[in-house]
Design brief:
Radius of gyration of chain B: 19 Å
CATH class of the largest domain in chain A: Mainly Alpha
Helix content of chain B: 25-40%
Helix content of chain A: over 70%
Order of helices and strands of chain A: HHHHHHHHHHHH
Number of domains of chain A: 2
Largest sheet of chain B: 6 strands, mixed
Oligomer: heterodimer
CATH topology of the largest domain in chain A: MetI-like fold
Largest interface: A-B, 27 and 28 residues
Shape of chain B: globular
Number of helices of chain A: 12
Distance between the termini of chain A: 11 Å
Structural class of chain B: alpha/beta
Amino acid sequence: MTEADKSSSAFTGTQAAGGGNLEAGIQRRRRQRAQRERIGAFVYPAGMLVALLALWEAATYLFSIPAYLVPAPSAILRSMDTNSAVLIKESVGTTFEILLGFALSVAVGIPLALAIYLWRPFARAVYPVLVSSQAVPKVAVAPLFLVWFGFGLLPKVLIAFLIAFFPVVINTAMGLASLEREKIYLAQSMGFGPVATFFKIQLPNAMPSIFAGLKISITFAVVGAVVGEFVGGQGGLGYLLLIANGNMDTALLFAGIVALTVLGVVLFLLIGLVERLVLPPHAVERTSFGSETM
Amino acid sequence: MTTAGDDDQAYLRIENLSKVYATRDGEVRALNDISFVQGRGEFISHVGPSGCGKSTLLMIAAGLLPPSSGAVQVRGRTVDRPRTDIGIVFQSPVLLEWRSALGNIMLQAEARNMNRKEAAARGRELLSTVGLAGFEDRFPHELSGGMRQRVSICRALIHHPDHLLMDEPFGALDALTRDQLVLDLQALVTERRMTVLFITHSIAEAVFLSDRVVVMTPRPGCIDRIIDIKLPRPRTLAMRETPEFAEYSRQILDLFLARGVLREH
């Protein structure tokens, strides 16, 4: 998008003596455009959301849809307001499960990916099992976890982990394997040993891919935690959804869904924030979705 | 130079080198019985068609690939592991995307535990020699293809290597950028009287830069002929229009025509 800007600022850069004004002008325009991009990235989706909600609200009144089927957005908002204490309390519980499941995914997934990458026989033994394990429907396994681990925190964390660790493993292994042959040659010609090559070149090379995996993983962990609460919950947003469903309180059901969505988005953005802090800017652009094309 | 003097001067010695790859369709011979000696301070180019194994030859000379038979010696010692006394430039720049231009050059310094401050100063100096002053903190994605390749050349030079190995370094660049880089390279190399092994498929590049041009045959790559280039140094762009230059180019061209590498209709 800023290809022209880059080359012209590069051009003036080499003869900085004469081109100060031009350079400043180009920089200013570039900043303005970047700001418009940022505002656009917020305004367009927000506008779309508001329009959809307005349409929804109008439709519920126009066609007098019963509230137990589809409540109006205003009714959902009211329900969120009256039930705010419960929603927050249950969100905290669910967040805890999600984060534990995610942390476990990272703690197990990354070393597993390392072992798969570094040790061929291990990869050949484990990889097929790993891939086919993903074909097992996790929801179907959930009752089994209930039998084994009871109704507490553990089965929810384990289900979240079971769903969320796979993208961590796959993306980490892929990132490690994606190192070009030439970079290894280069490292060898510089006298880097295997350990230095790994930390100086291979791991940083894999970071964008690893973060892509972490982003998928955190959204999967949300699903896992809710599935766990569905099956054997005594609390949490998933449990709240079940209760609301049982009471035909569809507005509360929607409120729970909204809370879960917000939770998922916030956690996703948090990973994105960490990524921004850890990686240089261009690498983040490469993995974040759509921000450049919007 | 006498024969005895030749031996004293021998820096890189390649003897009866062959490289055979095992593929599903049987063996593929990439290099066949290559022998030549490179003296210290000598600029040798290998020209040949794609697939004649000239890149493989460079990799073997760098100790990055093992030969199937024959030997590679550097200053009398057989190369049996990756050499670290070299600077190497690949066809692509092979820069680390997460490091700035200077940061990429400093990777070499870090690998060799060079004094950071001195290395950084030399890195800046090298960048300015190749026309990249002011670009030290730019990341690879902010640089053009030619700029990136220049950074990779600086990275190959920061540690004052004995031997510079370049594998079609200008192959992916436009004609004007190539001309500039060829001139930059000549300046850098003559300043330090470096020993350079240069792989290219450009006849003009080979004649312009080299003391000797090794012309390769199509696969399996053998040495067709070694041509001494006796043009005065430093060489200028205008020299490319001289009859002498044309004569050298013609010799190489004739070899390619004779081998069917090039066909005139």
